[in-house]
Amino acid sequence: MSAVTTASPVSSTPTLRLALRRSVFWVVAGVGALLVAVIAVLVTGSGGAAGPRLGAGNPAPAGGMAVVEVLRQQGVTVVPVDTLDEAGDATAAAGDATLFVSDESGYLSTDQLGRLGDLASRIVVVDPDFRALQTLAPEVGFGGVSTADSLNAECTVPAAERAATISTGGKTLGLPAGTAGYTGCFPGENDTFSVIERVTDDRTVTLVADTAVFANDEIATYGNAALALNLLGATDTLVWYLPTLADVPVTGPPSLGALTPGWVTPVLLLLVGVTITAMVWRGRRFGPLVAENLPVVVRASETMEGRARLYARGSARLRAVDAIRIGAVARMAQTAGLPRTAPLDHVIRTVAALTGRPPERVYAVLVGEVPDGDAAMMALSDAIDELERATALAARPPGAGPSPTAPPSTGRMEP
Amino acid sequence: MTLTGRFVLLVALGVVPIVLLGDTSARALAVLAGWLLLALTLGSIDLALAASPRRLTLARVLPSRVRLGEEVTSELYLQNDGPRRLRGIVRDGWQPSAGAGNNRTAVTLPPGERRLVALTLRPTRRGERTASHVTVRSMGPLGLWARQATLIAPAKIRVLPPFHSRKHLPSRISRLKELDGRTSVLVRGQGTEFDSLREYVRGDDVRSIDWRATARRNDVVVRTWRPERDRRIVIVIDTGRTSAARVADEPRLDTAFEAALLLAALASRAGDRVDFLAWDRRVRARVQGASGAELLSRMVDGMALIEPELIEMDWTALPGQIRGITGQHALVVLLTPMDAPGASTGLLSVLGQLTARHTVLVASVTDPTVVGLTRTRGTREDVYRAASAERTMLDATRVAAAVRQLGADVVTGAPDQLPPALADRYIALKAAGRL
Question: What residue in B sits closest to A319 (Cα-Cα)?
Answer without folding.
Answer: B387
